[in-house]
């Protein structure tokens, strides 16, 4: 039986059901057709024009992405509308686009969990648990939610734990391609003792109050603003900002491993984009 877009969607939704996504989010198949046969899949964090061209060169019929390309209301598909360029190019090349966003963030494949593993945290708990599904068919028997909290194996000074963490990250195998540490930032006294750590991949600023409430010494996230950092420091919590891309890229490798091991998708070639990267130069 040929693999179709619909089958790929079903496989992804086994670990990240669409019903888990936030109401403001836009997940699932955003461009394409459920019955299209799939031979190659390109995995990416962002659906940029360059990534669409990469998918075309690779011969992919489907892009599986974390970030939706249609998010803010898209009011037209005009060739002179910048926001419409990616969907138009996808249609032109007959490539589908599937997004797993806040539903994937709450799954066992979240980058928060992968990063907690790198740091060797113990007693890992979900930071903000989501209510379980009303539909028992979607109840995986696994708690889900945003972010994780945990403890370092032994207390460490902030400067030491951050250096160790970045070193481990580079050896972790979580990144398909060498990553750039430009843009990685740390706020807090390097001499501060760290025991409890909270990690929220992506834009984690809104979780600062929760992390403070949980008594975290260090909050690691991917996209945090000036005032949230000041709030954290005033509450005695250091902040490590990996940048949005670096904090979420581990999900791509996890998704690649999961899809590659799935029997139903045997014969489908899959790769992680080698072009998609952080938009920041420095
Ligand atoms: Zn994100």
From TrEMBL:
Name by which UniProt lists this protein: GTP cyclohydrolase 1 type 2 homolog
UniProt cross-references to Gene3D superfamilies, sorted A to Z: NIF3 (NGG1p interacting factor 3)-like (3.40.1390.30)
Similarity remark: Belongs to the GTP cyclohydrolase I type 2/NIF3 family.
Lineage: Bacteria, Bacillati, Bacillota, Clostridia, Eubacteriales
Keyword tRNA-binding included in the entry's annotation: no
Matching SUPFAM superfamilies: NIF3 (NGG1p interacting factor 3)-like (SSF102705)
NCBIfam families in UniProt: YbgI_SA1388
Pfam (any one): DUF34_NIF3
Keyword Oxidoreductase: no
Residues engaged in binding a divalent metal cation: 66-67, 105, 244, 248
Keywords assigned: Metal-binding
């Amino acid at each position: 039986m040929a693999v179709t877009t619909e089958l790929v969607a079903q496989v992804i939704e086994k670990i990240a059901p669409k019903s888990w996504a936030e109401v403001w989010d836009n997940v699932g198949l955003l461009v394409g057709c459920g019955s299209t046969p799939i031979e190659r899949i390109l995995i990416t964090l962002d659906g940029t024009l360059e990534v669409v061209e990469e998918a075309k060169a690779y011969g992919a019929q489907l892009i599986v992405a974390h970030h939706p390309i249609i998010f803010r209301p898209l009011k037209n598909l005009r060739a002179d509308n910048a926001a419409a360029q990616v969907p138009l190019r996808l249609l032109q090349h007959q490539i589908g686009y599937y997004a797993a966003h806040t539903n994937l963030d709450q799954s066992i494949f979240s980058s928060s969990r992968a990063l907690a593993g790198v740091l060797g945290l113990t007693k890992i708990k979900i930071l903000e648990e989501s209510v379980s599904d009303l539909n028992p068919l979607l109840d995986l028997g696994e708690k889900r939610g945003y972010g994780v909290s945990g403890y370092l194996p032994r207390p460490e000074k902030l400067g030491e734990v951050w250096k160790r963490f970045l070193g481990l990250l580079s050896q972790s195998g979580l990144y398909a391609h060498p990553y750039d540490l430009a843009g990685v930032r740390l706020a807090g006294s390097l001499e501060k003792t760290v025991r409890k750590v909270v990690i929220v991949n992506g834009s984690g600023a809104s979780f600062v109050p929760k992390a403070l409430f949980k008594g975290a010494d260090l909050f690691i996230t991917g996209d945090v603003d000036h005032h949230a950092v000041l709030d954290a420091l005033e509450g005695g919590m250091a902040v490590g900002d990996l940048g949005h891309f670096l904090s979420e890229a581990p999900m791509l490798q996890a998704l690649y491993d999961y899809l590659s091991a799935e029997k139903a998708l045997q014969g489908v070639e899959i790769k992680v984009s080698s072009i998609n990267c952080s938009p920041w130069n420095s």
